[in-house]
Design brief:
Helicase, Ruva Protein, domain 3, single chain, alpha/beta, about 240 residues, six-stranded parallel β-sheet, 10 helices, Alpha/beta knot
Length: about 240
């Protein structure tokens, strides 16, 4: 099995409160061949308990990156996938867990792909899910939906490793138009879009309702490549110049 195919997969943990969960997650990652760990605003890290739970994955902890926001963790990624036990009221593009591996491997040939896990008690907030293009939910017993954080990381990393072993090498999807934009590129497009829509009074900044979420979801479904994103930015700039 070529574990090098997993090098562009990043595990992002948001707001962890128990350092033992961080260490156990690092161990779960490394056992499946994944080593890129980013922690968003951890409450207790570094910590001896994290080291103790990591055992042979201390190097994953030592190389872990600590950032302040989810955007900082994923801005250079070409794809970010949220994990959640509860689906948001506004349905987000969802990937079945058994299809996750091939989707991630196909997307990780050029840029990192982030799999994002939320807080131990409250999971991911809606605004955090909206920073990701897709959502994956691990099927569980309806009477006990919540998984331990490290267990969830282990299951997702297992699916990725199994897909990598089956495919041997990523199946590269030919892109006839342009490269994959980063999350930061997409975020700047969203900000430009909303600013322009407010300027032409299509959006009321005092009453945003659900239209912003629906527009973000629309473009998440479309999965614009870099050239298509540049075209959209060009259209918005032309509108801005006509005002």
């Amino acid at each position: 099995m070529n574990l090098g195919n997993l090098k562009n997969i990043r595990i992002v943990l948001i707001g962890t409160t128990h350092p033992g969960n961080v260490g156990a997650s690092a161990r779960a990652m490394k056992s499946m061949g994944i080593t890129d760990l980013v922690l968003v605003d951890p409450q207790a890290f570094p910590h001896p308990e994290a080291d103790a739970r990591a055992t042979s994955a201390l190097d994953v902890l030592q190389n872990a990156k600590i950032v302040a926001t989810l955007h900082d963790a994923i801005e250079d990624c070409g794809l970010a996938i949220a994990t959640s036990s509860q689906l948001p009221s506004l349905r987000w593009p969802e990937i079945p867990v058994r299809e996750l591996g091939s989707k991630v491997l196909n997307s990780s040939t050029d840029k990192p792909v982030a799999i994002v896990f939320g807080r131990e008690r409250t999971g991911m907030h809606l605004d955090e899910i909206q920073q990701c293009q897709h959502l994956v939910q691990i099927p569980t017993n309806p009477d006990c939906r919540s998984l331990n954080l490290a267990s969830a990381v282990q299951l997702i990393c297992y699916e990725l490793m199994m897909a990598n072993g089956i495919e041997k090498t990523p199946v590269r999807i030919k892109n006839e138009y342009g490269a994959q934009p980063t999350i930061d590129d997409i975020d700047r497009f969203h900000k430009h879009l909303f600013a322009t829509l407010e300027d032409i009074e299509f959006l009321d900044p005092e009453q945003p309702k659900l239209i912003r979420q629906r527009l973000i979801r629309l473009f998440a479904k479309a999965q614009l490549d870099q050239n298509e994103l540049n075209i959209m930015r060009g259209i918005l700039t032309a509108v801005d110049q006509k005002k």
